[in-house]
Amino acid sequence: MQCETLLIAICAIDFLNAFEKLRLLKALKNLGGGAEGALSFLESATLGQIAALARRDPMRPLLVKRWSGGELLRLAQVSARACQSFGIELALYGKKNYPPPLMQICDPPFALFYRGNMAAVFGKNVSVVGTRRITPDGKMAARDFAWQAAAAGFCVVSGLAIGADGSAHQGALDAFFDQKTGSCKTAAVLAGGVDNVFPACHKKMAAQIIQNGGVVLSECAPGIPAEKWRFVSRNRIIAALSPATVVIQAPPGSGAMLTADFALGYNRELFFHESCFSQGARVLSNLVFKNLQAQTGAAAARKIEASPQKYVDSGAPVIRNFEEFAALLGEA
């Protein structure tokens, strides 16, 4: 348990990136004394000592307001006990159970905590995202696309949120139950610890995913809440896990558009479902657009620019169904 506690403690040092955490882990091992010695060092270490061991570039500033090795260790011990209680496993960067697509990006997670079958994301993946305020036709589009993708052997990656995400996961689950073969082809990426599914209304769905061969995962240790800023980090993992992201519906500035940006930044393919441009979607987008226009500042301006039409005008394909997606991706 001490080895797991050590890894969890390093995970929680949020002012270090994944590569600095790996460097720190190696340095702690070289100190001798095993995991117990490393934990003892962390408990009493100063910020300067952590920086000296972890940073390859000593000039990179550490954005940290407060450092307490003792508090870090206490929280890591709580998380380690939660891992044992909930059957949560850990995939460390570079290990066999760590998803290879995440090793291709510049800002990978140091580790992933997961429940279920991590092998679910080791085959063909497609990320399906969209707004929480999805229209009925968008909900059907997400469910149908995911059903067809899962039936064709793709793992549907999404964020378990209300709206497009939940509809996509449900489509993959329905494909599993309808076909009664293989395992459930879906992966839910959370913004908080996998011990406490958010939103709570999707706890049953998460349990079905886990029980039937899918996976629920997060870079956050157990006990960490799904705070607002963590959803952006979560979105990068959703985008990175797949060679392509499909946006079902997304008004300007929505979280799904952040995922779209991550996908392009990671050199992944980006597609928009035709439901993005349905009558209901246009009504919602116009309402959001007007609200953003009433706001001032650079943030509102960036959100206004981040519309599906902008990406389509720049060359992103619009698809009607999974068959068109597969053909464009070269999987037909």
List the helices and strands and how they pair.
Elements lengths: L1 H10 L6 H13 L3 H11 L2 H8 L14 H18 L2 E4 L18 E6 L8 E5 L6 H16 L3 E4 L5 H16 L6 E4 L13 H9 L3 E4 L11 H11 L3 E4 L7 H11 L3 E5 L5 H15 L4 H8 L2 H6 L4 E2 L2 H8 L3
Parallel strand pairs: 3-4, 3-7, 4-5, 5-6, 7-8, 8-9
Antiparallel strand pairs: 1-2, 2-6
Helix pairs in contact: 1-3, 1-5, 3-5, 6-7, 9-10
State Rg. Answer: 21 Å
Order of helices and strands: HHHHHEEEHEHEHEHEHEHHHEH
Give the amount of beta strand, in percent: 5-15%
Shape: globular
| Largest β sheet strand count, sense and barrel closure | 9 strands, mixed
The total of beta strands comes to 9
Q: Percentage of helical residues?
A: 40-55%
How far do the termini sit from each other? 47 Å
Order of strands across the main sheet: 1-2-6-5-4-3-7-8-9
Mean pLDDT score, rounded? 91
| Structural class label | alpha/beta
Spans of at least 5 consecutive residues with low confidence: none
Number of helices, where a helix is a run of at least 4 consecutive DSSP H or I residues? 14
Task: Walk me through the structure.
The protein is α/β, with parallel strands linked by helices and 332 residues long. It has a 9-stranded mixed β-sheet, with helices on both faces. Strand 4, helix 7 and strand 5 form a beta-alpha-beta unit. The chain is globular and about 65 Å long. Helix 1 runs parallel beside helix 3, helix 3 crosses helix 5 and helix 9 crosses helix 10.
Task: Briefly say what this structure is.
This protein is 48% helix and 11% strand.
